[in-house]
């Protein structure tokens, strides 16, 4: 009877282990078969969970932003991330989680802090310790190091006013079993965690550390001279325009000189802030490698789509294995999934392995470092990958069809204007006065004469014909806007005639679809080209009756590229009474890549949704009725805009074709689709 009871108990444990994916501690490795006959393949390994910038998860889960995640998907990505870690910490031997900062998007909005508070409480309830830091969005005075190295540091803040310290102060940090201390400002902290019989130090430094903060950090290292250290910042390493290569920042170089290069304990750095993923190996003063890594998915689909990382430290095989994945994507309803919903990223800058002989790398300051006991059945990142993908089916992707000819696109009866920029020889100037036909025949565009409305230095060759075009645009060319410089100010553009029928359109009852194919010039420079316009309406929106919003000098319609290379669609609605501008925003657009943008306004709800390359963006507006204009003769402008009545903010790059329709068109009727 006793043996039967033991067998039943053993079967119960085995079932529990398989159901939860348990492997750490060797439960699965010891079950079944002749253990003496099989080689022991267990390893000594642990994993760190890393949360990149969560700012949009905090913002767009709030009621003031229409609870967009819950409304569309029934769940929220921030809570999905922390719940996944809490649920799998034991199974995947995760002793610690690292947050890279930008906890919220708008520091002064308590509702966003409440979302973050709730998500991090999940870890606290599960006894999973974590470090956290303030990013630039988490402090009241956000000044970049490169713009002014002497201002905006931790010691220049009124600490009692800082929301970060109120929501994630020292008292809360002390709840973590790994907590060591915070500095005098309360913005920087360190933790010590134990994994596989070894201790590691995590030094987590908030936005814009002062010399006093660096002195504190150096003392932490000096007080723990044998501990391998991971340095965590919000900003340190950047990413080059190719979206893959590492790019050093002024702030990162400062930290290297003042903190990293002569502290051999720091073997690895992690930071967010810059959008995407990259890594750089540097050599410190002792001839040892320091692995620097940046990861931030906030500009990806849905504000990051729940993407996070797992760093496995395989002490047996001397490797750090990196997995970038989303525990949220498999939770989404199947009918909401599209090509951008990837549960696991496989690109080399998001999934990679770093070879590191831990004992040799740490030998100078920790001669006793060892791999520890082999208690883990197999690679933790591979186990995590299997857990994430279990039961999940990738959405069926319909491959887009390239156009067969210049007429291979859906014709729609609701077309108000359709401008197709092609016809000249590659590189030939588009002369001032050149008219671009409207497919409907009603609203041709004309290149304006040079140097009108305050423009200085514009030349004939500032707009040229190009055969370059988006792969799904049937228009076999584009126009390229060159030499644009907002500081000169120098720009060239096209505009409709004062008598064009489209000038009187407001689309208040019909809804609308605006489409454009654009490519930002690879030489785009924030200082010269930030807030450049794809298309605008002339006039100052401050002159609209009832307007009570910001930037009254701006046009009533802005279809632009922001200082962060986001697509901005911002319009004043065509309604009575008080009104402000309302906007949709994309994530970052990579310079040098063609993108198709569609902005769709529903005629019944008047919700506006922007799509980039077919994917709906996260940040949209609701109840936007029509497009207000100053008059029925105010022209539409392509490739330029205005500020306070003067021409400004010209486009820098290529525009292929633009279509305006007085209906909310489905994707099957967009210019990326093919004719019936």
UniProtKB/TrEMBL annotation:
Gene3D superfamilies: 2.60.120.200, 3.60.21.10. Pfam families: Laminin_G_3, Metallophos. GO terms for molecular function: hydrolase activity. Residues 77-275 form the Calcineurin-like phosphoesterase domain. InterPro entries: Calcineurin-like_PHP, ConA-like_dom_sf, Metallo-depent_PP-like, STPP_CPPED1, TAT_signal. PANTHER family: METALLOPHOSPHOESTERASE, CALCINEURIN SUPERFAMILY, SECRETED PROTEIN. It comes from Duganella vulcania. This is Modulator protein.
């Amino acid at each position: 009877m006793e043996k039967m009871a033991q067998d039943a108990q053993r079967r119960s444990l085995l079932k529990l282990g398989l159901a939860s994916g348990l492997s750490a501690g060797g439960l699965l490795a010891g079950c079944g078969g002749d253990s003496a006959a099989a080689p022991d393949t267990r390893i000594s390994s642990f994993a760190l969970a890393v949360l990149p910038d969560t700012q949009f998860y905090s913002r767009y889960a709030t009621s003031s932003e229409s609870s967009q995640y819950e409304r569309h998907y029934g769940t929220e990505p921030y809570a999905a991330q922390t719940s996944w870690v809490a649920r799998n910490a034991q199974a995947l031997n995760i002793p610690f989680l690292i947050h890279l900062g930008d906890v919220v998007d708008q520091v002064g909005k308590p509702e966003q802090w409440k979302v973050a508070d709730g998500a991090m409480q999940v870890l606290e309830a599960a006894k999973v310790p974590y470090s956290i830091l303030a990013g630039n969005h988490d402090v009241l005075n956000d000044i970049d190091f490169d713009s002014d190295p002497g201002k905006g540091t931790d010691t220049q803040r009124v600490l009692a006013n800082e929301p970060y310290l109120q929501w994630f102060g020292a008292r809360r940090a002390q709840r973590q079993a790994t907590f060591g201390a915070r500095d005098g400002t309360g913005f920087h902290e360190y933790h010590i965690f134990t994994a596989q019989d070894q201790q590691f130090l995590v030094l987590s430094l908030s936005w814009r550390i002062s010399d006093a903060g660096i002195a504190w950090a150096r003392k932490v290292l000096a007080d723990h001279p044998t501990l391998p250290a991971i340095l965590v910042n919000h900003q340190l390493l950047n990413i080059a325009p190719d979206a893959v290569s590492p790019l050093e920042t002024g702030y990162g170089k400062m930290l290297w000189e003042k903190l990293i290069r002569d502290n051999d304990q720091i073997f690895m750095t992690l930071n967010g802030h810059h959008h995407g993923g990259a890594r750089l190996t540097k050599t410190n003063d002792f001839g040892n490698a320091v692995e620097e890594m940046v990861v931030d998915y906030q500009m990806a689909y849905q504000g990051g789509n729940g993407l996070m990382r797992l760093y496995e430290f395989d002490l047996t095989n001397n490797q750090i294995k990196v997995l970038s994945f989303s525990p949220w994507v498999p939770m989404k309803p199947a009918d909401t999934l599209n090509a951008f919903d990837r549960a696991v990223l496989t690109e080399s800058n998001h999934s990679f392995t770093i070879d590191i002989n831990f004992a040799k790398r740490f030998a100078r300051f920790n001669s006793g470092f060892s791999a520890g006991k082999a208690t883990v059945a197999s690679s933790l990142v591979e186990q995590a990958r299997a857990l994430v993908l279990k039961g999940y089916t990738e959405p069926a992707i319909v491959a887009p069809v390239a156009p067969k000819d210049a007429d291979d696109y859906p014709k729609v009866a609701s077309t108000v204007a359709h401008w197709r920029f092609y016809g000249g020889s590659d590189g030939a100037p588009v002369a001032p006065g050149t008219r671009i036909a409207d497919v409907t025949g009603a609203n041709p565009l004309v290149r304006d004469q040079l140097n009108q409305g305050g423009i200085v230095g514009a030349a004939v060759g500032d707009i040229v014909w190009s055969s370059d075009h988006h792969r799904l645009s049937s228009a076999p060319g584009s126009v390229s806007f060159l030499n644009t410089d907002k500081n000169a100010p120098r720009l060239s553009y096209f505009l409709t005639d004062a008598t064009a029928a489209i000038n009187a359109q407001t689309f208040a009852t019909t809804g609308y679809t605006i489409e454009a194919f654009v490519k930002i010039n690879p030489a785009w420079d924030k200082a010269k080209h930030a807030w450049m316009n794809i298309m605008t309406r002339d006039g100052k929106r401050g002159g609209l009756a009832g307007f009570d919003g910001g930037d009254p000098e701006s046009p009533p319609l802005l279809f632009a590229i922001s200082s962060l290379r986001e697509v901005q669609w911002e319009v004043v609605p065509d309604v009575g009474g008080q009104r402000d501008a309302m906007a949709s925003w994309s994530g970052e657009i990579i310079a040098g890549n063609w993108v198709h943008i569609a902005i769709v306004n529903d005629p019944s709800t008047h919700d506006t949704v922007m799509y980039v390359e077919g994917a709906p963006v996260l940040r949209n507006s609701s109840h936007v009725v029509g497009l207000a204009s100053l008059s029925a003769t105010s022209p539409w402008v392509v490739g330029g805009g205005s500020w306070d009545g003067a021409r400004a903010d010209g486009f820098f790059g290529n525009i292929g074709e633009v279509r305006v329709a007085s209906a909310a068109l489905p994707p099957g009727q967009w210019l990326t689709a093919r004719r019936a």
